[in-house]
What does this fold into?
Amino acid sequence: MSEARVCVGAIAGAFGVQGEVRLKSFCAQPDDIAAYGPLYTEDGTGSFSVEITRPVKNGLAARLVGVASKEQADALKGTRLFADRDRMPALPEDEFYHADLIGLEVRDTGGTLLGTVRAVQEFGAGDMLEIHGPGLKTTVLLPFTRDAVPTVDIAAGRIVADPPEGLF
It folds into this structure.
């Protein structure tokens, strides 16, 4: 997948029998997913224009151009959808796309390397940075709060963290 694309949603499976899909939107405004099209598969080999038909429990019902049957929709279950970065809105100063955080170096306030961001997780109580680094047997989940992460410098490729005592 190109760094010029951002994951904006995923196909959760078929919705009905006429080719509609159930979409999980990762956008702040769920309906915005249709405005960023066409949307691409992770490997970039497939693309879809999206038409939202209605909200449904845990997502949106949508039609994807080229998907006309329940079987075709079911075959796409689990497919993550990506939009071209230049179609995405600019963010305020203290907001970031998850894709921009992944791979950033994480150092503590004294400059010691803690690791790199492997993923951004959301378990319902706020974002957590999944960090893997030297000397860590498993990844560490660092709360993505202003207290624990006072500085994010995308241009320099680094995060300064002030982790809770004993986390690392």
Q: What stands out?
A: Residues 70-75 form the longest helix (6 residues). The CA atoms of residues 20 and 67 lie 8 Å apart. The chain has two domains: 5-87, 98-159.
